[in-house]
Amino acid sequence: MNSALATLLSNPAIWRGDDCAPEPATLPSGFAAVDAALPGHGWPQGALTEMLIEREGIGELRLTLPALLRVQAQGRDVVWIAPPHRPYAPALAAAGLDLARFYVVRCHDAKDALWAYEQALRAPECGAAFAWIAAHDERVLRRLQVAAREGKTWGVLWRRPGQRASASAAPLRLALAPRLGKLTVRVLKRRGAELPQPVVVGGLELISKWGEQPEYLSWPNEGPQRAPR
Amino acid sequence: MLWVCLYFPSLALDIFARAWHDEDAAQQFVVASGGNAPKVILANDAAREAGIRRGQTISAALALAPDIVLRDRDPSGEAHAIAQLATWTLRFTPQVSIIAADALVLEIGGSLRLFGGLSPLVTRISNGVKAQGYQAQLGIAPSPTAALLLARAMNAHSIRDARELPCILAPLPLKLLDIDADTLATLAAAGVTTFGQAAALPRDALARRCGQRFITTLDRALARSPDPRVPYVPPPCFSSRLELPVPVADIEALSFGVNRLVHELTAWLSARGLGAVRLSLTLTHEHYLQQRGVPPTHVPFTLGAPARTPAHLIGVLRERLARVALPAPVEAIVLESEETAPLAGRNLGLLPEDEADAAQVPLVDRLRARLGDDAVTLLAPHAEHRPEKSDRTRVARATLQSKMPARKVHKDSESLPEAPRPLWLLAEPEPLQHRLEHAPWALKDGPERIESGWWDGNDLRRDYFVAETPDGAIVWIYRDHRYGVDDGEWFLHGLFA
After folding, report:
1. CB B30 within 8 A of CB B69
2. How distant is the Cα of B474 from the closest Cα of chain A, in angstroms?
3. Could you tell me the pLDDT band of residue B91, with boundaries at 50, 70 and 90?
4. How far are the Cα atoms of B5, B94, B485 from residue A182, in angstroms, in the given order?
5. Is A164 a member of any domain?
6. How many structural domains does chain A have?
7. In chain B, what are the domains?
8. Residue numbers of A between 41 and 100 with CB closer than 8 Å to B
9. A1, A113, A127, A141 - which has most CB atoms within 10 Å?
10. Residue B468 and residue A103: Cβ atoms within 8 Å?
C-alpha cells in the first residue's frame, strides 16, 4: 500500500467498514479463535454481552472461565445473579476461581433480579456480572447497558434455550451451539462488520481422551455398550 | 495543657429541637420543669419573641402564645446527649471529661498540630456541634475550671498563658463557678460577688469561712493547683433514641432523624475503633397505640463487612427502610449496635475523589439490604465424596469470612476430586429412561464409583459417567447401584456448562 495512504488510514478518525470499532477496554477471552472474532480482541469491559445458547451444557460457562479468572486477578468480584441451577463449588474451585470473590445472588422475582443486576453492573468492585433473567424490554436492556458502561463491568445476559429476543441494546450478541462435539460461536451482532462464519472454539475438552471412540448408552437395554466399529 | 470547654446552655431544649428540620425553627417551643406547677425552663427564639421568659409558669406562657409546643424536661436524655457529645469529641483528643451536667472539657494542647492550629480546630469543633443540632459556647484556657468559667461567661478570647488568667477572670461573677448556694450567699453578704474580689481575700480567712474546697476551686481556675479530671470512656454498647417532633407516618420523613442517629453511631464506632456488623433500628409507635398492643417495628440489618462510614450506613439503612411497611405513625427512633468488629483506621485519601469512592456502599450490602440477609451467598467446596454434599453455601458475612483462614481453603482445594465435575449441578437428579429412547448417549469418561455415606442413612453407591447427548450437550450421569450392581436406573445429575 502507498505509504501516504497508510498514514492517512492510521488516523483514528477514519473508520473502515471491514474492521471493528475500537473497544475502550477488553478482557481477553483466553481462546484465540474467539478473541479474533470480538472487537478489541476480547470481551467488552463496560458493555453488555448477550449470549443465546442453543441448549445448556455445551460448554457455555467454560467459555467464560478464563476471563472470569482474569477479572479476579484484577482484584474485582464476580457476581452471578439468579442462576438457573446450582453453581457447583468443586468445579468452580477446580477451574481456579477464588470463591471468596464469587457471589451468587438469589432473587424472589424478576424485578428484584433486574434491580440487583443493575446494581452489580454499576458497582466498581464488581468486574463481571452474569445474569439469567428473561429481560426483553428494550428500555430495560438499554438501562443495563448504561449501567455496565458506568461500572466498567463485563455484563453477560444469558438467554436460556427458548428465550428468543429480537432487537437488543447489547452491543455484542453471540449465539452458542454445539457442532460435532465442539462449541461454535456465531456473532449475531458486534460493533463492526458482520462475521458470517461461526467460530469453532477449541480447548474446551474436559478430559484428554475426548476424541477416543466412546461407549454408547441406549434404552431399553440400558447398559454401556462398545459401539460397533 | 490547653483546654477547651463546650458549654451547652440550651441543652434541655436542643435534645428535642435537634430532631426538627430547619424550617420548624419558627415554631414556638418551650421546655417545662414538669410537676404540679410547671415553669418554663428554656424557650427557643420564637417563643422568647412572644414574651416567654425563663421561670414563668406554663399557664402564663400559654396565655402569651397558645400555640407553643411543650415538652417536659428530660434529665436522662440530657445526660445521654452529653455522653454522646463526649464520644463525638474523642475524634479531636483522647482526653475528654464531662465537667458539669451541661459542659465538656477537652484537652487540645496535643491536637493543635494535627488539626492545623487552634482556630481551625475550634472552627471544626463548633461546626460539628452545630451540625448535630446543639448550641455550644466555647471557652479556651490553660485549666479546665477556667475554660468552664469562660465558656459560661461567653468570653470568646482564647487564653493560652496562665499568667493572663487573674486579669481575665477577675470581672466574672462568682455564681458561674460550681459552688454551693450557702457559700455564694455568705460571700454576697460580704459584698464579694466577682471572681477577682474572692481571689484577693486572705486565703486563711476564706478557707475558714467557705471551706478548703472553695480555695481549691479558685486555685484550679487560676491554674495554680493541679486540676485532675476523670477521662470519659465511651460505653461498650451503642444505643441512642431520638424523639420525633410529630408522629411520622412516612418512611421518607424518617430519614432526617435516622441520619442524626447514624452520625452518633459512627462517632461512637470511631471512638472505640470498631465497625458495625449488625445493627437494629426500632421504630416506636404512638403511645396510645403501644398501650393497645401495637408492637414497635424492629428493623434489624447486617452488613457485609464492618463499616463506620456514615454514607455507607445511611445508604444501607435507606434501602432497608424502603421495604418496611409502617403499621402506625412513628414517635421515636432507637438505633442500637448489636454486633461490632474491630476496624482499623483508614488512611485518608490524598485527593478528594478517593474519598468519594470510599463512601460508596459496597455492592453486597446494598443487595442484602433490599433482597434479604440470605440472598447473597458465597460458595465453598467441602471435603465429602457425595456430590450433593461436597459444597457449602454460606451467607456473605463479615464475621464468617474472617473466621475462614487461608490455610483451610488450601486444604479444601487439595481435597478436590481428580475427575471432572460439572459447573451446574441439578437440584434433584432426573431419571433418564425415556430420554434415551431416540438415540444413544455417548459415554465419554467413567465410570467413577462413588460409594459413601452409610453412617448417616443417606448412603449411595453410584457409577458416574461423563456423557454426550445426541444433541451435543455434555452431561454428568450416574447409574444407581444402591439396590445391587448393574441393574439400577440412570440419572442425570449435572451439566458441563
Report:
1. yes
2. 5
3. confident
4. 78, 68, 34
5. yes
6. 1
7. 3-221 (3.30.70.270), 239-361 (3.30.1490.100), 377-414 (no CATH), 424-495 (no CATH)
8. 54-62, 77, 79, 83-95, 99-100
9. A127
10. no
What's the N-to-C CA distance of chain B in angstroms?
70
Nearest CA-CA distance, residue B326 and chain A, Å: 21
Residue A2 falls within a domain, yes or no?
no
Helices (H), B132-286: 144-152, 165-169, 181-189, 195-200, 203-210, 212-221, 251-272
Whether A129 is covered by a domain: the verdict is: yes
Range of the structural domain that residue A162 is part of: 44-199
Q: How many residues are present in chain B?
A: 497
CATH number at residue A168: 3.40.50.300
Chain A residue with minimum CA distance to B471: A178
- Cα separation, B183 vs B60, in Å, equals 33
pLDDT at B418 over 60: yes
Q: Which of residues 195-214 of A touch B (CB under 8 A)?
A: 206-207, 209-210, 214
Report ipTM for this prediction: 0.86
Task: Say yes or no: A139 contacts chain B, CB-CB below 8 A.
Answer: no
Provide block-wise average pLDDT over 10 residues at a time, chain A (229 residues). Answer: 75 67 80 89 91 90 93 93 92 90 90 91 92 85 91 90 69 89 88 85 76 69 51
Contact B112, B121 (CB under 8 A): yes
B307 in Cβ contact with B276 (< 8 Å) = yes
**A78 lies in a domain?**
yes
A67, A106, A57: which is closest to A206 by C-alpha? A57
Question: B440 to chain A, minimum CA–CA distance in Å?
Answer: 4
